[in-house]
Amino acid sequence: MYLNTDLDLISSRDLTDLAAALDAGGVFPLHVTRDGDGFWHARFETADQYPDPAASIAALVAAAESLSETHRAIWSGCSMRELNIGYDCEAEAAVLNNSLSPELLRRVAAVGASLAITVYPIEITAPSVSISGPPAGS
After folding, report:
1. Domain range summary for the chain, segments of one domain joined by +
2. CATH classification of 2-120, choosing from 1.10.3470, 3.30.70, 1.10.3210, 2.50.20?
3. Whole-prediction pTM value?
4. Is residue 104 helix, strand or coil?
5. Which residues contact 92 (CB under 8 A, 6 or more apart)?
6. Over the stretch 8-57, which tens digit does the pLDDT of each residue have?
7. Sign of the C-alpha dihedral, residues 104, 108, 109, 110?
8. Are the C-beta atoms of residues 94 and 127 closer than 8 Å to each other?
9. H/E element, 42
10. Please, which residues have CB within 8 angstroms of residue 94's CB and are 6 or more apart in sequence?
């Protein structure tokens, strides 16, 4: 089952101004932090929920395409610009097929982003096991 698509950025530059610009374009930050590695890390999602990755990616790319020259320079300076498509495995799920058009892939490439796919595993709970000692009197 398709969950959502995240936009992940890593940069040596402060990403807070870029995050504000993306937020104004309907792409809100989940976090923007300077990590222990000295780099800025940011993760974003679209304000609207989409039923498939193509629509979500189109919205994320549109936000990047609409950046001002100043914010586009920060975007271009990121060492990672990744669109990460998230799926949840389901035990009884049917075959899933999502496609991205050549035009959308060109737009992704034009903003310098990469694509990633994350598949979250089925959560399996262990059966309850009762362990008891030897029978009384043995």
Report:
1. 2-120
2. 3.30.70
3. 0.84
4. helix
5. none
6. 999 999 999 999 999 999 999 999 999 999 999 999 999 999 999 999 99
7. positive
8. no
9. strand 40-46
10. none
